[in-house]
Write a structure and sequence with these properties.
Strand content: 5-15%
Number of helices: 6
Distance between the termini: 79 Å
Structural class: mainly alpha
Number of strands: 4
Order of helices and strands: HEEHEHHHEH
Strand order of the largest sheet: 1-2
Helix content: 40-55%
Low-confidence stretches: none
Shape: elongated
Largest sheet: 2 strands, antiparallel
Radius of gyration: 22 Å
Length: 187
């Protein structure tokens, strides 16, 4: 037994040092090289921080673009998806409620035109981005509420499109916070 116990304890100690000390220190060091120095990439307006570029925020006013719904109530400390499958009755009721709300605020849109990212949760519950289609479908509501020509808002949407990583990894997307900040600058 001694023959196996001592090597097992040594191996456990080595892996504790690697997994609980060295690896976290390495990841923290890499994070310091990222935008925001590991504290998150803040978005500022007139020198005041208004949010984070990689954490979604709730926008419900008709004059703003709405982001993706959050199962975590946009709380970064409690990041999570809904963990409900597409056949779960509670999930289906929740999605239908989101569809009904969207249609009530966007009367010119048909149910089948609503992009799924406007009525379903992301895996983290904190997705800051929406699809280009999700932004474009909201233009009429925002133009009416702000009394701005739809063409101006459509041009703003196009200017905010982020291309896929390296031109082919992932879809085109739009950061909702940054889009709404630029929207507030429109006259």
């Amino acid at each position: 037994m001694k023959k196996y116990l001592l090597p097992s304890l040594k191996l456990t100690a080595v892996f504790i040092v690697i997994c609980a000390v060295l690896y976290p220190l390495f990841i923290a060091g890499v994070a310091k090289l990222a935008p925001g120095g590991g504290q998150g990439e803040t978005v500022s307006v007139n020198g005041k921080v208004v949010g984070y570029a990689n954490i979604g925020q709730k926008f419900t006013a008709d004059k703003y673009f709405w982001g993706r719904p959050s199962a975590a109530a946009y709380n970064a400390a409690g990041s999570s998806g809904s963990n409900k499958g597409p056949s779960n009755p509670d999930y289906l009721k929740d999605v239908q409620a989101k569809i009904d709300t969207f249609l009530a605020h966007n009367p010119t849109v048909k149910k089948e035109e609503i992009p799924s990212d406007l009525v379903t949760y992301s895996g983290s519950g904190l997705d800051p981005d929406i699809s280009v289609q999700a932004a474009k479908i909201q233009v009429a509501r925002i133009a009416k509420s702000r009394n701005i020509a739809e063409e101006k808002i459509s041009a703003l949407v196009i200017s905010q499109i982020q291309k896929p990583l390296w031109g082919f990894l992932g879809p085109e997307k739009i950061n909702v916070l940054k889009l709404n900040i630029e929207l507030d600058k429109l006259r």
